[in-house]
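Troubleshooting log. The previous structure file for this entry was overwritten by mistake, so regenerating from the original sequence record. Sequence copied from the archived sheet and checked twice against the printout by T.R.
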Amino acid sequence: MVTTAGMLEAYFDCRQRKRKTASAIMYEVDYESKLIALRDRINDRTYQPGKSICFVVTRPRYREVFAAAFEDRIVHHWVALRLEPLFEQVFSPRTFNCRKGKGQLYGVKMLYNDIVICSQNYTRDCYIMKLDLQGFFMSINKAMLARMLDAFILEHYQGDDIEDVRYLCQVLILHSPEHHCERHSPIRYWDYLPANKSLFTNGEGLGVAIGNLFAQLFANFLLNVLDWFLLKDLGFTHVGRYVDDFYIIHTDKAKLLAAVPRIRELLARYGLKLSPTKFYIQHYTKGVEFTGSIVKKQRVYTCNRTVKNFVMAVRRLNKAETIPEVQHAIDSINSYLGCLRHGNEYNTRRKILRKIEPHCYKWIYIKGRYESVQLIKRYRQRSITLQRIRDGTY
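Regenerated output below.
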């Protein structure tokens, strides 16, 4: 049975770093009663996910994203708090995304170290093969994933609330958010998406919504079979994966090429395919792009596409006319600054942030040594929403 304490724990975990958003602020009003009602719906087996927000991001490419309602995100965190420790016991140490203590930069450092070790500090030849999965999230068979996860829970989970965990996992995975959502992007944006890149046209029973915590967590669980296949069955040591993007490093180029058909065969069992266009194999001296960084001999730097997107974000800020537009641009800018701060990119940060036009400083200020861009306090969403609640106009 789901307890009130468990729901509170999930709620506080969910609102970390999200407390300033409008949805979190509105839920915070009388949140105890809302959590008790949510708890009762789960225990009565009447819980169903609410309405999602659907939109299309345009950079670096058109991609459909679903954002769950705040209450549903609390449920996602409740499940994650119980399954993440179990996943960590079985996940490969060479998987980097959505894991505490790892992440994008950790993966880049691991790739760099793998090149150094495999090449014996650049004294012998070795080759880097990088592959990608074709339409990974949209190719996932939801019923298959639900069965795999349920079998894992039955084998590994020991808590008294095991039936609640099983129930919620089935509901979350099998849910079809495209049938109950609000589109927050112009409808014409979906014309740029191939049929197999949207849940609206992908086919019944296929695809999980990009943008939700459980999608990242359960997708990682699904690809765990690939991680261990590379390490144990194929015998590679220097491998790494970030979501559906993975690399293999070896001294024998022929062995790398011979592994590709076996990888395809494994993926086919799960309804997945390698991308026919995103295939790369080169000598380590040529360098390789991985998670937005270029890794070369004794040098790692941010790729040109990321820098270009950073410039575009600054231009969006210069053109912004409303506070939501300013906030959206700031969020993008800070995301790119987070990448650049971890490299020797101070001059790049300074050069691009100096492109911010003077009129923008009535809304924003630059923090530290070009470390981040912040919205002036009186314009922040939390301040605006709280004031509207006090005025009775929200």
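The two ends are 35 Å apart (CA to CA). Archived copy saved in two places this time.
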